[in-house]
Specification:
single chain; about 325 residues; alpha+beta; four-stranded antiparallel sheet; about 45% helix; elongated
């Protein structure tokens, strides 16, 4: 009887040990799978980040050979990658792995995204490029570069966390091209490059008048006998920069009894773009004469352009031309 009890107890122990062993193997298999899956995702994320770091460094090192529009387009393409990195950093937070390595990578990536935003803003601002600010924190470009170095050093330690864990996952290192760059010196080189130089220029491209003027010499407007005149003024921005332009319209009758009419309008013109100003109608009188002056300000005169146009206006008498 005692022998049977001993055999039964031994059998129970063996079955329990087998279940524990199977459970342990299952847990190890699960961890191995999770670690390897994380390594694939993490290395893909790190590869994208390192590619961004190297592309930005290459652009700043060789940007003096590009025109302003091309340089700005490439800078924008790099900026468009940052939200992707931030989103992927959030996705790798779960499940929680050994040494919390995925949370570490997520936090470091989010910090580096902020750092790159500051650097991109600094580059765009230094060259006067049309740009939407990416980061509104008080972080300076010098602090952002220092942060890139610090986060890279932190990751250099954390990325070895899974080497001895199930799956033996090996994780990629961070690139530090931007952290090590002498940014101020490189920006000075870019700012002095002729192809990237900011040369502002604006001009009046065209003036439309309604009702349509009668045939007359250049600089003279002979208009039908109407009580008001409608103007349209097209202004062009000759530079690759956002440009604030102020338009002034002055209508001065030769009859001193009639007051001058003055209108001022302001608009921001996009890079190399035109904008149509539409002033309010000018009040006129049948048979009167006046001087119409249209001028714009905000930047120097562009090549082959003018910022002032002056017209001698004659309103036809009633019933005649």
């Amino acid at each position: 009887m005692l022998l049977l009890l001993a055999l039964a107890a031994t059998l129970v122990v063996l079955l329990f040990s087998r279940d524990i062993t199977r459970s342990a193997h299952s847990a190890a298999d699960l961890r191995r799978s999770e670690n390897r899956s994380f390594a694939v995702l993490a290395n893909a994320l790190l590869g994208q980040e390192n590619n961004l770091d190297q592309r930005l460094a290459f652009l700043l090192t060789n940007g003096q050979t590009l025109t302003r529009p091309v340089f700005a387009a490439r800078l924008t393409q790099i900026a468009q990658q940052l939200p992707v990195l931030a989103n992927e950093a959030v996705l790798i937070r779960r499940p929680v792995l050994s040494h919390n390595v995925n949370a570490v990578l997520s936090q470091l990536t989010e910090q580096r995204v902020d750092d790159y935003q500051v650097l991109l803003d600094t580059v765009a601002r230094s060259l006067g490029l049309p740009w939407t600010v990416l980061n509104t924190t008080a972080l300076t470009s010098r602090a952002a570069q220092a942060s890139l170095v610090t986060t890279s050093d932190t990751w250099a330690l954390a990325r070895r966390s899974l080497v001895k864990e199930p799956g033996r996952a090996r994780l990629t290192a961070d690139s530090t091209s931007m952290g090590a760059m002498s940014l101020s010196s490189q920006l000075a080189i870019l700012a002095n490059a002729p192809s990237l130089a900011l040369t502002r220029g604006i001009g009046i491209a065209a003036v439309s008048v309604s009702p349509a003027p009668l045939p007359a010499p250049i600089g003279t407007l002979i208009l039908p006998p109407v009580g008001s005149v409608h103007l349209g003024v097209s202004v062009s921005n000759a530079a690759y920069v956002n440009q604030v332009v102020s338009l002034t319209v002055i209508f001065t009758p030769t009859n001193a009894l009639r007051p001058r009419q003055i209108q001022r309008l302001v608009a921001t013109l996009g890079p190399l773009q035109s904008f149509a100003f539409v002033p309010q109608r000018l009040t006129t009188s049948v048979g009167e004469k006046a001087t119409l002056t249209i001028s714009i300000s905000g930047a120097p005169t562009g090549p082959s352009m003018s910022r002032i146009r002056t017209y001698h206006v004659t309103m036809s008498p009633s019933g005649g031309g």
